[in-house]
Write a structure and sequence with these properties.
The complex is a heterodimer of chains A (111) and B (112). Chain A is mainly β. Chain A contains no helices and eleven strands. Chain B is 0% helix and 55% strand. Chain B has no helices and eleven strands. The termini of chain B are far apart. The chains are: A mainly beta (111), B mainly beta (112).
């Protein structure tokens, strides 16, 4: 089973709202990732957690705040986003930092 | 030079033909290579991984790797309309802290 789940599937939020994206995997993978994907572009890495510790932050604005409460769960907290942050947000997990398996994504629209 | 380069396409092939998708990469130290398929509005789906020079076959898909030429390809035999998607080549880029670096993707259209 290589399933990564993400909730919600769709999210519409105003620029003053606070919301969170959730990602879960029960495959025992030790690395988890957040990507952002704009239309007709490849996924763009945002954050990497390895063994529940933040190992890579790709200079993402502070309005995006990741959290890894445990080895199966990854959150992305959103606050004061801009319309240009509208995108597909993808979570992925990997057994040991190699092959990555993506979740279905959350499509975010910021108004 | 981009880290991972692909022809954006679209690549159009008739149903039943072989589709050939190509990718070049810049990091000579890279050891791990992946092909993902992405349907419009969906997330990337892993279809092949390859680590050694040569061919790796899985059903209708064959991945080919040539590290000396820094080249990886994906062949899809007996192409079906359901294969129409964007194919993303991805490489573990050692120079960038073992990040997975994606090419821009090649759009494949299989015409029935």
């Amino acid at each position: 089973d290589t399933e990564v789940t993400q909730t919600p599937k769709h999210l519409v939020m105003g620029m003053t709202n606070k919301k969170s994206l959730k990602c879960e995997q029960h495959m025992g993978h030790r690395a988890m990732y957040w990507y952002k994907q704009k239309a007709k572009k490849p996924p763009e890495l945002m954050f990497v957690y390895s063994y529940e510790k933040l190992s890579i932050n790709e200079s993402v604005p502070s309005r995006f705040s990741p959290e890894c409460p445990n080895s199966s769960l990854l959150n992305l907290h959103l606050h004061a986003l801009q319309p240009e942050d509208s995108a597909l947000y993808l979570c992925a997990s990997s057994p040991a930092g190699e092959t990555q398996y993506f979740g279905p994504g959350t499509r975010l629209l910021v108004l | 030079q981009k880290e991972v380069e692909q022809n954006s396409g679209p690549l159009s092939v008739p149903e039943g033909a072989i589709a050939s998708l190509n990718c070049t990469y810049s990091d000579r130290g890279s050891q791990s290579f992946f092909w993902y398929r992405q349907y419009s509005g969906k997330s990337p789906e892993l279809i092949m991984s390859i680590y050694s020079n040569g061919d790796k076959e899985d059903g209708r898909f064959t991945a080919q790797l040539n590290k000396a030429s820094q080249y990886v390809s994906l062949l899809i035999r007996d192409s079906q309309p359901s294969d129409s998607a964007t194919y993303l080549c991805a490489v573990i880029h050692m120079e960038y802290g073992n990040k997975l670096v994606f090419g821009a993707g090649t759009i494949l259209r299989v015409k029935s």
